[in-house]
Amino acid sequence: MDYKEIQAMVFAAASEMSSRDSDDRLTTTVSLDTTFADLDFDSVDGVEFACYLSDRFGFEIPELELCSLKGNSSRDYEKTSLREVIAYIAENQSRFEPSPRT
Asked: Running along the chain, 102 residues long, what does each successive block of 10 average in pLDDT?
């Protein structure tokens, strides 16, 4: 999967997840520089986001790795941008395990 395909899927997932708690209105325009804080994602949302992306991509994305791209503190987590998430997936997709299908 190329970078643009990954970007489109991550943007769609971020928009969907961000709007689910706000009457289906996304108040932040999703871009490469959008952070988890901009999306109002806490650490639980980060785990849900990783699971959501895993379902969309068809391979397991380790939640702990995705949630610690910037570091292990909550302040670091909130600074994680979608650019970093996309780059992480693009660089690591070959090592991810296929998601179990139910």
From this structure: 93 84 60 91 84 86 76 72 92 76 52
